[in-house]
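Troubleshooting: if your tokenizer reports a length mismatch, compare your output against this known-good record of 486 residues.
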Amino acid sequence: MLKKSLELLRQEAADTGAGSLKRTLNGVSLIALGIGVIIGAGLFSLTGLAAANHAGPAVTLSFLVAAVGCAFSALCYAEFAALVPVSGSAYTYAYATMGELFAWIIGWDLILEYSVGAAAVAISWSQYLLKLLSKYGLHLPAQFVMSPFETARLADGSLVHGYANVPAMLIVLAITMVVLRGAAGAAWFNALVVALKVGVVLVFIALGWRYINPANYQPYIPANTGTFGEFGWSGILRGAGVIFFVFIGFDIVATMAQETKNPQRNMPIGILGSLVICTILFVLFGHVLTGLANYTEFKNSAAPVAIAIEKTPYGWLSGAIIVAILIGYTSVILVDLLGQSRVFFSMSKDGLLPPVFARLHPRFRTPLHSNLLLGAFIAVFAGFVPISVVGEMTSIGTLLAFVMVCLGVLILRRTDPHAPRSFRTPWVPLVPILGIATCLLMMVSLPLDTWLRLLVWLAIGLAIYYGYGRKHSKLRIEGLGIGDGS
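Known-good structure output:
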């Protein structure tokens, strides 16, 4: 239960020496990072499913409900990121408020969540790439686009087994090289990618708006079928639960605090700004989507945008959407790799992982060995594990981190109420309590195998912590923290 003192965290944040990360990011680049991970392919698929099965045209209200639920956690993240602007995000915040063991649990789980997220996105990126290439008559050998546990039947009727998903591995390794060059280069690349994919979303909204059929909005909130979650107001709430995971990702912005100029000002701007901008885009997107086609047409469709585009004379938009999805996936992989390596770096710097992972590149001042190890791990995961397995590993760890951060704000307001806060979460304790309740509700709704995977991973992590981390903890060895250490 040994805790890091706020004073020690502020000293780490103020360190600009050779052993610290290079501060290059501003508010705009942080907003771009947040948008880069929030706007992924989920927007183009989950919106239609939420409308068809739960909310109807009122999916726009579902987006607003989900955004409000996310905002509770985002406001708590913003306070912590401004108060202790060091890398590590929820891991660091838990270290300061709940102790080393809780910090390890959160950090260890975030490592897996970012790995799973990046691998799943890389596999889907590979599938969409094949779709794009097939439009131009280009086809890759089936053996090199599947994991060894998957099979495919060729045109001649023969059955082939996969060797490895090579495109998925290559995109992970390529993005790892970008991340190695530092947050500034990664932010520049991400800004370009974000501009392109946001541009496609805006084009869809602008071109589709004039072909909206008002009859598709009648009724705007379809009558409930008698089952909770199937339309009516309960359907809006269930739809919000379905699309809640589209918003997850703003928390990765908090991992970049130690590479941000004036983090006390820019971290809240990055976290809250990305959430607000994405909410506006999502509501407009959902409005146009359900206006172009009746919500019932999206049932059991993973490509609702293609159905909506058929209602316009802009058939070329279908190809542009695939390009946007590829671009969106690329930026999600980028930001996942950035956030994950920073958590790994922070845990190593605290002595909980071997010190080699805290060493920085001599020129770019990035966590070299952390990036290389995690990039290789994710590439192997993406190349040799089927999407059916990866897809089952949902974001339970991220929601657990949200709960810890909200709880941390409550604890720190009581234990250190006078600490200088450049940004304060409003309406405490109401906002943190609502954040905890929202996230716990989402966690309870997740399937059992997700919980089992979390418990197995945490068991492995606890074995590493008690076998290595606890013995090498710098706080424990140097006695710099607060608490009895028992």
